[in-house]
Amino acid sequence: MQGNNLIIDEVLFNEESLKAYVQHLKGHNVYYIGVFCDLTVMQEREILRRDRCIGLSNDQIDRVHQGVLSSYEFKVDTTAISPFEAAHLILKFIDDNPAPKAFQLLEKQE
Asked: Rounded to 5 degrees, what angle do the CA atoms 15, 77, 30 make?
């Protein structure tokens, strides 16, 4: 182990993708964090960013955060906070919870 920290920012659409992460990251401390946002705000951000296909948020909203995919360690709602504030909340959670459990629980379900 090199001691490097890694952040993976991905929208997971199916259980198989999550299971692959669980298998490949065995033995590592992994915090599985769900990032949420109100659909109306998400649509506004999608337009303002100009690097997204318009309507992508509409397509994703009903496909993510479902079933096993929602087995998050921590959830953060970015509707009314800045990215800096969201990062601060996540880092505080990590500091307060040095032993992540979500991936360990998911591994036992296999």
From this structure: 45
The C-alpha atoms of residue 14 and residue 8 are separated, in whole angstroms, by: 16
- Judge whether 106 and 22 are in contact, CB under 8 Å: yes
Which tens digits make up the pLDDT trace of 32-49?
999 999 999 999 998 898
pLDDT under 50 in the chain at which residues?
Answer: none
CB-neighbour burial class of residue 78 (10 A; exposed 0-12, middle 13-18, buried 19+): middle
Tokens of 39: 């659909």
Strand partners, 74: 33
Please give the C-alpha separations between residue 55 and each of 46, 52, 68, 89, 93, in angstroms, as whole numbers.
8, 9, 25, 28, 32
Contact 23, 74 (CB under 8 A): no
